[in-house]
């Protein structure tokens, strides 16, 4: 199966480099490029790609706004988005997770990492590698607390109510997802089939009114089901 990709970045040289890497693969094709968030939304609605590589900061509408628009579009249920970021974009990474991006990738990732990221997201997994998941969500918690936007170290009763909507098995699956586990990883850990894991993920998204697996991870931290690195680990 050919993975159809749209590349979005305000720098033409970066778009060219990404296109060359992706089209070197036999199973990938770039179906379009855009240089602004607004153009990206129009392009994706026209081409209906499988995966969008979206720069976070661009003129004429940033990538975060573009992702939010794509996630809210009921005609694009199968399109997944990877945000392209740098080490200096903490706040933007947090906002992109909230908007519904399926993951993020550093702009200086090597070609093999880029290709693997596209394949992973296309297969239905979120792109939150175990080595960085907790750091990223911990940053989210710190930023949100600084703005008095969410709970302190203990989840609020309202956040905890999220967990009441889940079955015990769904909670088990969510704990593993929050560590960056793939469907296969979760299936192995819980002695389930991958199809069953996918079913649980789909059920949780519907039950909680969320759009992506990454939003599930953020919800798990908000509710205190999993805690940031250095705060004692998972709390199932």
From TrEMBL:
SMART domains: HTH_LUXR, REC
Molecular-function GO terms, alphabetical: DNA binding
UniProt keyword annotation of Cell wall biogenesis/degradation present: no
Residue intervals of the Response regulatory domain: 4-122
Highest taxon in the source lineage: Bacteria
Keywords in alphabetical order: DNA-binding, Phosphoprotein, Transcription, Transcription regulation
GO BP field: phosphorelay signal transduction system; regulation of DNA-templated transcription
HTH luxR-type domain boundaries: 159-224
InterPro entries: CheY-like_superfamily, NreC/VraR/RcsB-like_REC, Sig_transdc_resp-reg_C-effctor, Sig_transdc_resp-reg_receiver, Tscrpt_reg_LuxR_C, WalR-like
Positions of post-translational 4-aspartylphosphate modification: 55
Protein name from the UniProt record: DNA-binding response regulator
Organism: Cellulomonas algicola
Taxonomic lineage: Bacteria, Bacillati, Actinomycetota, Actinomycetes, Micrococcales
């Amino acid at each position: 199966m050919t993975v159809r990709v749209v590349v979005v970045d305000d720098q033409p040289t970066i778009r060219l480099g990404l296109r060359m890497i992706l089209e070197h693969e036999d199973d990938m094709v770039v179906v379009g490029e855009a240089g602004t968030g607004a153009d990206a939304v129009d392009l994706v609605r026209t081409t209906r790609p499988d995966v969008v590589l979206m720069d976070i900061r661009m003129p004429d509408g940033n990538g975060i706004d573009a992702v939010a628009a794509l996630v809210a579009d009921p005609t694009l249920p199968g399109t997944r988005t990877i945000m392209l970021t740098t080490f200096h974009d903490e706040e933007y990474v947090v906002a992109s997770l909230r908007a519904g991006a399926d993951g993020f990738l550093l702009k200086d990732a090597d070609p093999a990492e880029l290709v693997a990221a596209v394949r992973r997201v296309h297969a239905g997994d979120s792109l939150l590698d175990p080595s960085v998941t907790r750091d990223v969500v911990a940053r989210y918690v710190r930023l949100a607390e600084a703005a008095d936007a969410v709970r302190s170290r203990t989840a609020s009763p309202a956040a905890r109510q999220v967990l009441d909507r889940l079955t015990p098995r769904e909670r088990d699956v969510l704990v593993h997802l929050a560590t960056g586990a793939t469907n296969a990883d979760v299936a192995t850990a819980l002695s389930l089939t991958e199809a069953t894991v996918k079913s649980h993920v789909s059920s949780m998204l519907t039950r909680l009114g969320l759009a992506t697996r990454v939003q599930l991870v953020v919800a798990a931290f908000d509710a205190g089901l999993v805690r940031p690195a250095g705060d004692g680990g998972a709390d199932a």
